[in-house]
């Protein structure tokens, strides 16, 4: 093996190993039809999030749909001109639906990943080091628990102009506590396991032990909470947007719902309500279902009779 | 500043700066900032930076459409725009610190506050230097003088003359862009009641005036009139209320010294006559035989007490009334004299109208009136307080002896709209959480009228039901697009004119408001509904081609992609000249500049 | 001093410190907010600077931040929430009825769902793999994960607009004129308005309890001690009861925690249904920037969480015979 | 009369991808008043049989066929309600893991009372009286009936389950490994108790265990299970004295015995069969050294042997006597004889002097402020010992006496709180002071639990290679070093294992990987903390042999910690007996075995069961449990339980040099030898 190929081969091995872990982790999908269906929905959602804005036939905000006579088609039910009908100001609901997937995806994905990653890191560090580090971090989670998320988020968003990254950051800042606690308690039990002691006995540093021995063994819980984090983040983002604290520059599903609700049109414009509402419900539910199916697999206690 | 498109190499005449930043061009009394919160610079030959335009979609449901209209207009000129949808409070917050606008263009619709319809001052005086509301840093020396003068001219005719001039100057100079005066649209049940009175800025059912309620006649046995509203009163303390709803609804209970008719004419109320005796002295005779709802007689004492109380405890909602009053003297049981600090032309047309007089015997023992929430407010008004439940309902009953219920009196005040009959007995305001529910309640008969502004579509939807009709009334409250005058681009009058000509307000009103708005002739703040309107103002009518020509002649150019560029070379020199403080109110030709096209 | 008392004391101390920190955070965030309700008045051109200063002084906004902070802490901790800027009323007078309205909606909903869903969850867990189990899980997951306002909108469209079974909004019919809590809550009209938000709240929370109970029972069902119970000849139902009893503690703890988060969790529910509760009031107050009101509402919410956390820990320590009460970590 | 008759029982478990044939055609019967044993390695189906009898099979388990007749009624044909009536009333059950078999949120007394109430219509107070009585019978304090399970120790909990089983005086008690997981002394006491009570009540007992010794001592008849098949059954005297089945022979041989320290135990190589289909060949064929073509054809029938009450399932049952002789030779089982290379002991490599490890007990803040002395758990309390190269020092003692703590302190995983320790000429402070890595390189420790001592997310290559990476040792030939070490510990061919994850390995293989991980750095000193206690007998023997070999060939110094005296005797050169943090006896293995001086050692030795049913052993039962290590009695710590304790013992603590000579010392005022 030449000196050059070695790191490469090493890299491949790493990637391979990582891939194997992921494959191993999603193997449950094959067995659980519900989880599989959810995965399909989640996949469709990611597709929408990435390509939706390009697929939208019109600009969701600026383009106005007009009738043949040139007048604006306000609150028109679905037709060939507008598959999902139009809004009170003649905007294309279909285009808004397509474009609205993106902020939902961005906040969901990054909010979820951020929540998972931050919570995971805090949980591992806190659980592994114990002592005052633990005490400090856990009090911090207590604090974030006692600061009510919704009101605090609303307050923060009143003095900072909302944009999706800010919203993502706020969501992460409030949700990391959930995985942190669970991961920590998991780490506490992993830390006591013999192989960790054994790693120490063979001279591994704290960092090495934490990274190679503790972290990989709580990773599934981390994954699980990342999945839940995605669902929470989507829900939180939609809720904030619904209350009027969403990113005003982007069309999002939550914001669409706010506009129907605010404009007093839910009673009539079902075509305007259903797409975003079903979109949000479908994505949060499927992420949750995937998480749950996964939990079933990783939680040995509830799989006792298999 | 990285510019888009290809800019030209700056080519600058001697002694002319290559770049001009946004800055304060005058010392501003009301502004303490070192520099404006906006950063926008003009550089010779460079493509214009994106122009930030702010609005708040909370302001009006259609505000975003309006902003998009502005965006289209600017795009047509080759100017890119960043639309900034800001929370309403943030839009307001700029005025709190008063450092100026954060955007080049900032649009917001004004509330139809009765004061704004009665006198030109509330809107016009903002163009003066001393006004706290002048955070767009607009300054026009001539206008400044005229406005200061008219504010002290108590002679009506003289004043009207000055006000007309002011409107002309403002419109010609494009001190701001006034796109439209949106109508007030509501829906009412006409099967049960007749006699809805159309009042400008107030429609038939809003709460700034009581005309509809005193004029309504039942078509059925039921004499309780129920109005659904979506904003709730927060307290029963009219004078120290921070919100708008209580200041309006509680005027049903109280009377002012004078009142205004649906034609925005001043009519007597608690005061029956009087006026300026000299520039700073006003003497009024008060109505006799008036009783407070608790039976106590109303006297001059009450007026004096009220003004002093407001002044001592800084009433928030009655500022316009007591602000100019230096002292009050009682000349007799029913006669008072106000000594004003300065001559104030608006005193008789605006300030004493809709002023609220409190009963002394009720308020004199209140410790801190600003934190007082009377259990049951007592006034002299056409309605007596019955009960109030915050966020739920407010109820008032007819004060039968009140002069407004006198048919003759009403005939005088309302003209054609007056109707006679038994009238209402009780008025109930019900809080309904949203528009959807309001319409539903109106259709189901739970309420008789909607006291909230609806969109045309919604009103039509409501009117689909038997017995429900859409009501629409004009308004004197404009949508103002403030322009940041410290920004070099805005300081160029040629650009302002092009901007005004690029906006298709009429098309917008047709498309999105179904014609339910008035588009003014030019940039006139004063609506044709008021008595102060000047119809002969400069109208820069919608014409994009012409706008382009104007820009071209002023030296602006376009790059290959059609992006607008600042003038270059000599034209840049002319541009810099135009934006100097002494020239910013003048056109190119007035300055003897050539045609650069 | 027993171990338990010591644990209690430590937990209590932590809670007090947490309250202080949380309250300070709220203060800082609120002070960062620009503007105030008076801005509207300034914008309308009605006030001059002096008057503005005067009003600010009245609400203590002109004092040094430090002084404001101290008086703020003092007043919050003594439950003197001050005077609402917009409502010209003591904050507590504004909040009290809202609080009651919220509680009357949320507490019964939470209790109902805790009992029903836990029982159903236990039953589902016991019959693991059955259709009932699968269905209940999917259904509750759907209800749990969908943001509550969406469920609420669906319910409104379906039950209020299309079937017209119940009113869509509000707590009482708009023309009702009840006097006092008794008249407000004891009436058919109230019930009529109550059903929909109640049902949505119940369904929204059902997922957590159902899963918790189900997982608990599934976990216990394979356990050794249940095998011994079975060997002793206990009937199926008695076994389920034992499994349920063994899964009670997490449910109880969770219930307590949820109870603490109740106000914040369902802000959106109150907004959608226009339920005049504390959550909706808070959103309004935030929009209107009524500092004292926001401050008090957030404080109440934070306090509820802190107290509930404390209660959950204590209950856990108290009811679980095996828990170590040395107060080490608080889970 | 036959109490229980099992005929052709077949049980399968359905799993996601396959069906496990856990029990295949098992037949046996239990006469009234008889103690019956079921023995076999782990996974042989013992528990499954018991659960099938009781109708307690998990949901995925099915009784495919067979009859289960109890007192004439067929248990399989009963309705649930009928079965519930029989359960406990007639058949009681002592489950495998008493530790978790009690409902954690119900008081122990209530759980017993519940059993009574379910079947008898008695008042609460009657039931309570009965519970108190039962507590008394099993040797628990009747006043503790209102305590929760977690307030009892493992042994005590086991007694609670026994008390529960006795509550209704059933005809049959099924005890599934009632003593597994408990240490010898407690095990011995419990077995004794069961026997005593059962004698009194005159019920039958079905005892399930993998410890042949326990069966030999308690049962009248037994069945040996393997792969879900009965390999041999009959009276204990017949089966265990003269086994006729190669599996029984192997099983019996792999049990080390204390007295027979010269003779190396012989293990059965290989691992139990895969049960995912019904056996077509003899289930033992793959591991049987005597297998012929016949054996590959079919599983042999169970044949009645001429002598009464003895059946065996083996194709070569006729040659039994010859096979028995061959089976005693390690070569037969393909096991290399390692005992021949008996190297000299080298120089001292590690020495401790009065080593102490006290754990401070957490203390309320208030007392801390007051500056009160905290309480200490004196886990290791003044241990002095030395280990030479090529020597295996065994450390024995009952659970909780501080063995693991000692091991970990010697490995510097715990900081010593007192005393001296010198490794390779340098005091431990030297290492702690920045030279820890060199210590870690030379001293390795192997832990008890093979299932948990390997990171489940690393491959064997990563596992074994990690120490090399950490210490930058043989980095350029890492692969080679790994392979070499794996082969040294008997994982051949090493390539086959390199990319496996731990869960793909058997318990024995895992423990070998753990050993390889320790050996890859070529350490000088190895500490083994019960490395074999979780392994099946045959695997255990393999591991012991491996360690012995390492000491002899690689000149390692080894400390071997265990509570299993028998295996210690096999592997060690010298032995140290520990009691409550102290060494109370120390010396050469043979001298301690033949002549224990300390009464505690005597009782430890006597507690180990004998696999030969014909030998009788005298038990020395100890009273009570070890005292609380926080609150040690003054004087000899063992005195409160010592049968020979006198005044002197309570006054002052005897030192280790109190009795014996240089190669065999004991801390006792009245040592055995001297009294004789
Ligand atoms: N619930 C189950 N599902 C699938 N297979 C099982 C189940 N329970 C036991 N088995 C398998 O059945 C076989 C027999 O298991 P059983 O528990 O009866 O063995 P055992 O002899 O009691 O072993 P041990 O000594 O370890 O207790 C084993 O191969 C085991 O893996
Ligand atoms: N980290 C610790 N903190 C406090 N006490 C401890 C700690 N570790 C062990 N102990 C106590 O020290 C004593 C000795 O424990 P140790 O684990 O060394 O026993 P052992 O002989 O290995 O037992 P076993 O045979 O059960 O493994 C026990 O009383 C135990 O409770
Ligand atoms: Mg078993
Ligand atoms: Mg140990």
SSE arrangement:
The complex is a heterotetramer of chains A (306), B (597), C (331) and D (676).
Chain B: E1 19-20, E2 42-43, E3 51-55, H1 63-76, E4 81-85, H2 88-97, E5 105-109, H3 114-118, H4 121-124, H5 141-150, H6 156-173, E6 177-182, E7 184-189, E8 193-194, H7 211-215, E9 217-218, E10 224-229, H8 245-249, E11 258-260, E12 266-268, E13 271-278, E14 281-286, H9 300-312, H10 319-322, E15 325-332, E16 335-340, H11 360-363, E17 383-389, E18 393-398, H12 407-414, E19 426-431, H13 435-444, E20 449-450, H14 456-463, E21 468-473, E22 479-483, H15 488-491, H16 493-502, H17 505-513, E23 517-518, H18 544-553, E24 557-558, E25 564-565, H19 570-578
Parallel strand pairs in B: 3-4, 3-5, 10-19, 10-20
Antiparallel strand pairs in B: 1-2, 5-22, 6-22, 6-23, 7-21, 8-9, 11-12, 13-14, 14-16, 15-16, 17-18, 18-19, 24-25
Chain C: H1 3-32, H2 38-43, H3 49-58, H4 65-77, H5 91-126, H6 131-145, H7 148-162, H8 180-185, H9 188-221, H10 224-231, H11 236-260, H12 262-265, H13 267-273, H14 278-288, H15 291-319
Helix pairs in contact in C: 1-4, 1-15, 5-6, 5-9, 5-11, 5-15, 6-9, 7-9, 7-13, 9-11, 11-15, 13-14, 14-15
Chain D: E1 2-14, E2 19-31, E3 35-39, H1 46-54, E4 61-70, E5 73-74, H2 80-86, E6 91-94, H3 98-101, H4 108-119, H5 124-137, H6 154-166, E7 172-176, H7 184-201, E8 204-208, H8 212-218, E9 221-226, E10 229-235, H9 236-241, H10 246-253, H11 293-297, E11 303-304, E12 310-312, H12 320-327, E13 348-360, H13 365-370, E14 376-388, E15 392-396, H14 403-410, E16 418-423, E17 426-427, H15 428-432, H16 436-442, E18 443-446, H17 460-471, H18 478-488, H19 494-498, H20 507-519, E19 525-529, H21 537-554, E20 557-562, H22 565-571, E21 574-579, E22 582-588, H23 589-594, H24 599-607, H25 647-651, E23 659-661, E24 664-666, H26 672-675
Parallel strand pairs in D: 3-8, 3-9, 6-7, 7-8, 15-20, 15-21, 18-19, 19-20
Antiparallel strand pairs in D: 1-2, 1-4, 4-5, 9-10, 10-12, 11-12, 13-14, 13-16, 16-17, 21-22, 22-24, 23-24
Helix pairs in contact in D: 4-5, 4-6, 5-6, 6-7, 10-12, 17-18, 17-20, 18-20, 20-21
InterPro entries (chain C): BPD_transp_1_N, MetI-like, MetI-like_sf
Protein name (chain C): ABC transporter permease
Membrane topology (chain C): Multi-pass membrane protein
